[in-house]
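__Protein archive entry__

___
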Amino acid sequence: MSENANLLTKPNRATAAEQIAQTIFDAILDGTIKPGAPLRLQELARQLGTSMMPVREALRQLEGLGLVEIHPHRGAWVRAVTRADLLDTYFTRINLEALALSEAAKRFTPADTERARRALEEQAAARESGDLIRSRAAHERFHFTLYQACGSDWLMRSILPAWRNSERYRIESMRHTEDRDKRRSEHDKILDALVTGDAQAAVACLVRHLQTSMDLVLESLPATGEGEDDGPHDLAQQLLRVRIDER
């Protein structure tokens, strides 16, 4: 090890590829790049004023999060949004995030509380000013502040891909502006339960919160006709089985 001590340098906090991946991700979320749209390396590099190498790496990063599909000799494109993918994504989120909250409730600290409340305040301020990108970032920071208190790095790594994919669907649910105050109240209830160490209440509030988002999107997402219909879905039934008894 000693002979290699000077061979490695500390990486930049955000590489060009990471910055490009974030730019493309934001464009996917705000609808600038539509589901199913092709992602052509040369065109993206031209628009971003860079070479194709960091663009190619950025697309690989987004592929790893399940947002982009890449096939050799065929190119890359944004994954389609479907009812089946929505249900699968939220089924995964509910199970992983419920586990994270259960553990977080055992070790949630005043510092965690302060960070979470600041994130909620920033989200509200950004929303009022119309800064949707900053609002999304603050919303993510709030949820991940809660989950990180679980103390498991692997659980956090597992949550991130499903979270990022679900953001494509959550944006659709946020069009229901009449539910905005309700969503903020749900955030407050999750946080309050963690502050008191009530794991069961925190999980129950989270499940209701995610179920609301999923139901709102299901109302507006048409069936594709490819094995999807408006009746009970196997994944939906599985998802309902993990809901907490609210009695």
Summary: The domain at 16-78 is CATH 1.10.10.10 (Arc Repressor Mutant, subunit A). The first helix runs from residue 16 to 29. Residues 118 and 142 are 8 Å apart (CA to CA). DSSP finds ten helices and two strands in the chain.
